[in-house]
Write a structure and sequence with these properties.
G-protein coupled receptors family 1 profile domain-containing protein; membrane; two-stranded antiparallel ribbon; 2 strands; transmembrane helix; mainly alpha; GPCR_Rhodpsn_7TM; Rhopdopsin 7-helix transmembrane proteins; transmembrane
Length: 303
C-alpha cells in the first residue's frame, strides 16, 4: 500500500474543492430525483424485467450508484474524522473507476447482443442466457483482480493530497497503455463497429417493419453513445493518468461533464431501450391528461 495514503491530516476538502463539490452536489441531487422517478415509474407501470433488460438496467444502476457514492463521499468529507480515512481514500479512488468500467462493458454488451440479433439472427438472450450471466460475473471479478494486482505491485497507487479527493496514480506507463486499450479504446471501437455493421446490414435488406424498427433502434443507440462519449469519455480517458498532469480547470470541466451525464442519463436512456421511453411517455400523457382535466373544470366553473 502506498505511503501517500496516510499523509493527509484531515478528511476535509480545501475551499476551492469544496465550492466545486457543492455545485456538483446540486447537480447530483437533481440526478438522484430524476433517476428515482424513473425507477419508480418502472415499478408502478410493471415493466417486465428480463435478461433483455439486464445490461440497460445495470447501466442505469451504475449511474445511480455513482451519484449515491458522491453523496456518501460528501457527507464523510464534511463531517467525519480521520479514523475512517484509509477506507474513504480507497473508496474514492477505486469505486468510480470500477463503475466506469462496468458502464463501458454494459454498453459494449448491448452492442454485441443487438449485432447477434439483427445480423446473425440469433436470440442471444435465449440461446446463451447462462453464458451471458457467467461472462458478466467473471468480467466484474476480473476487473477487481486487475485493480488489486496493479495496486499490490505498486504499478498504481492511491494518491492522497491535502484538501483534495483521493485518486489513482498509475506510475507504470505500460499499465496506463494496457488500461486505456482494454477499458477505453477497444470497447468504443467495438461498439461503433458492431452498430455500423448493423446499419449496413439493414440497408441491404428489403425494407420491412421489423427492419425499420431495428434501424431506428440502432440510430437511437448511436445518438446515446455519442452523447455518452462526449460527456463521459474524457473522464474515462484521463482517470488513468497522473492527476498532476491534469490542470485544475481541465479536471473541473471533465468532472462537471460526467456529473451532468449522470443526471441527464435518466432521460437519455430512452434512446438506450424502448422500455424507458414507454414509461416516460406514460407519465407525460398522465400529467397532460390531468392538466387538461383541471383546465376543463376551471372553464366549467367560470361558466
Amino acid at each position: 500500500m502506498s505511503e501517500e495514503l496516510f499523509h493527509n491530516v484531515n478528511l476535509g476538502w480545501n475551499q476551492i474543492t469544496l465550492s466545486r463539490n457543492e455545485l456538483f452536489l446540486i447537480i447530483v441531487l437533481i440526478g438522484i430525483f430524476l433517476h428515482s422517478l424513473l425507477w419508480f415509474q418502472l415499478l408502478i407501470y410493471k415493466i417486465r424485467i428480463d435478461l433483455t433488460f439486464f445490461f440497460s438496467l445495470t447501466y442505469l444502476l451504475t449511474d445511480f450508484m455513482i451519484m449515491l457514492a458522491f453523496i456518501i463521499q460528501y457527507i464523510i468529507r464534511t463531517n467525519f474524522q480521520r479514523s475512517t480515512h484509509g477506507f474513504v481514500c480507497y473508496f474514492e479512488a477505486y469505486f468510480i473507476v470500477y463503475i466506469d468500467i462496468i458502464e463501458t462493458i454494459c454498453l459494449t454488451f448491448i452492442s454485441i447482443c443487438r449485432y447477434y440479433e439483427i445480423v446473425l439472427n440469433k436470440n442471444i438472450y435465449i440461446n446463451y442466457r447462462k453464458l451471458i450471466l457467467f461472462i458478466s460475473i467473471i468480467l466484474a471479478i476480473l476487473i477487481i483482480i486487475n485493480m488489486f494486482i496493479q495496486n499490490y505491485f505498486s504499478w498504481s497507487i492511491v494518491l492522497d493530497e491535502i484538501g483534495s479527493s483521493c485518486s489513482i496514480n498509475n506510475k507504470n506507463i505500460y499499465v496506463i497503455i494496457f488500461n486505456e486499450i482494454i477499458f477505453f479504446f477497444i470497447p468504443i471501437i467495438l461498439c461503433f463497429y458492431l452498430n455500423i455493421q448493423c446499419l449496413i446490414y439493414l440497408k441491404k435488406r428489403n425494407c420491412s417493419k421489423m427492419n425499420n424498427n431495428n434501424y431506428k433502434l440502432i440510430n437511437r443507440f448511436l445518438i446515446f453513445y455519442i452523447i455518452w462519449l462526449i460527456l463521459w469519455g474524457p473522464f474515462v480517458f484521463i482517470e488513468q493518468f497522473y492527476t498532476k498532469f491534469i490542470t485544475n480547470q481541465i479536471e473541473f470541466i471533465v468532472i462537471l461533464l460526467t456529473t451532468l451525464d449522470n443526471t441527464i442519463d435518466a432521460i437519455l436512456v430512452s434512446h438506450l431501450d424502448q422500455r424507458f421511453k414507454i414509461v416516460w411517455k406514460k407519465t407525460y400523457s398522465l400529467i397532460k391528461t390531468k392538466l387538461k382535466f383541471k383546465r376543463t373544470l376551471k372553464i366549467h366553473s367560470i361558466i
